[in-house]
Fold each of these.
Amino acid sequence: MFRLIIVLYLFGTTFVLQAQNINSPYSLFGLGSENSIASGGLTGMGNTGIAESVFNEINLFNPASLGAMVPETFLQELGVSGLYSTLKNNTISESATKGNVSHIAFAFPIKKGWGLSLGLLPYTSTGYKIDLENNVIGSTDTYITRITGSGGLNKAYISTGFSIGSKLHLGVDFSALFGSIKEDSQVSVGYLVNVNDTKRYNGVVLKTGFQYTMFQNENNKTVLGGVVELPTTLSGTQTRNSFRTSSAGIVTVIEEEEETDSDNVELPLSIGFGLNSTFKQIKANLDFKKTFWNNTSQDLNDELYVNQTIYALGMEFRSAKAYSRIRYRVGVNYNSGFLQISNTQINSYFGSVGVGFPINKQGGDRVNISYSYGKEGSINDGLIQENFHKLSLNFSFNGSWFKKTKIN
């Protein structure tokens, strides 16, 4: 089993670092589309979990959850997902299918009540192909410009969380963002002109969190959680080269490849609060998150960055039978979006269902399966709407690598 886990993780690392082709026209703007990634069973609970604190699961939303870790455990998680989406406007529609590794994460205790986690996941994704029709100046003729984008940013994080007393957990998360976005433009006006731009970004993000147990007895536990992600600036560089190809196939270089400074990108302040309540075999999460994009001073031509709000609700049900360790989950998620195009804010929403069950006799290793259906965007005002079906698999392994061998 150990060798199999290592192979899976190496496979995952290779593909997480590659650009994710998501075929979304809205990934044209800024750093691309956000990747909302949840760990463990939280995917089936509508991507909730700010107040979730379980000793045998990794929580990517709040580093304070690491304060619940117990000694002699080593948590490992690998996530994969597949997406089937349909893009449509008022006249046409097209479909696409894609799949990728979503994240890889590890967590282990420093001592009782103090844990450490590290991992790698895609932060944003870019993948679009757009044909624009333009008029030739001084003529009724037109020409087509095809713009293709790919790439995205990755996130490598290290976080720690610890308990203060029996009720309060605190945590901090340091994340390094890095990656590149490539945009290729091709213009046909009797001859072909290709312009290739590659923008590379990097920076550091700091997030802090807390979880406080408000009430606890034998049958019920209620926890309040909160996270704050501080604003930061990503530095960027740009490499451009262009060439012209005549009808006879002769290639002429217009611009040599040269690296220059690119506009920096501002990431705003983000705050979130969550409530987690457990009553016997039922668990519920309620999350709220606000991201203040209005405070950034970035231009998007005729588009705007606007404040983003996310509401999410998730529930988990466990069988009352002692021998049954299967968990059933359901959730909903609404995201107002941070882009405003043609006076329309590009929002999204989805509903999810999931199930989690053990894959070994001890119950420490689990597989969590979830299905989500949702929509993003609108067909009004000449915009595009995406309907998507998403299937996620999260493999969680709970090792005991820190146990000391007893010699009699």
Amino acid sequence: MRDYLTASSLGDIPHGFSSSAGLGADQILPGAALVRVRQVHSATVVTACDAWEEPPEADAIVTDRPALALGIVTADCAPVLLADPEARVIGVAHAGWRGASAGVLGNTVAAMETLGANRGAIRAAIGPTIAQASYEVDAAFRDHFTHADARFFTPGRAGHWQFDLPAYAAQRLREAGVTRIDDVRQDTYTQPERFHSYRRAGHRGEETAGRQLSIIALGR
């Protein structure tokens, strides 16, 4: 039984969003080399031409090379997979609130364009992430955003708001020219039997090291 999620927007592009059960590159594309980065909550994107020995610091990867499986890990942040099936260009991005607000998704789309993608043809999928009902933030967090972002916050208890990270990520994709976007709509926080959640683990005083792996690849 397959224990990972897929998105209809990506069609037959090999891809998957893992649960806490894990995921291997061979499950997505047999024989593919898994390419990852050292994630630092940045807006930096790197282009993979081959599997590297020492992963660079970045939060998104793009490629047009077959048999490479691009992967990022998350545990509440939004994993975003992107593909232009006609140009055969793919990308993956780690979109926490810092990276998303700094432009990691727009930068990923731009990097895909340099490989021949057409941003109007790019499809995107947002994987399991913390949902608005589970994401309480304070005034200091709210101050990182502009008045135009007010629609992504709903009032909560005094001095707090609920932040809609997947909707914010989708808006940043639309601003970059991506119009076909799927959201698998799975809340990492409320499903301890299925997903790791950094925030839930912190609230419970548990180990916070668990992560989901999201992968996209180009077939040969």
